[in-house]
Amino acid sequence: MSDTKTRIRRWGLEHAQLRAELELIRAHYASDEDFDVAIERLFAELKAKEDFRKRTEEPPKWE
Question: 45 and 22 in contact (C-beta within 8 Å)?
Fold first, then answer.
């Protein structure tokens, strides 16, 4: 039971870190009017989300 609670707590912390990273990216690439800046922001957000998925992905449980 505590293992499940630990995983949920860890996921919550990882999710909070993702939200903070996205806010920093959005603050860094504030100008949406320039197409190149918007593309850089998009790729930075996608990379942050992919890193989040890699951190929170559970490895398969082998018997």
Answer: yes
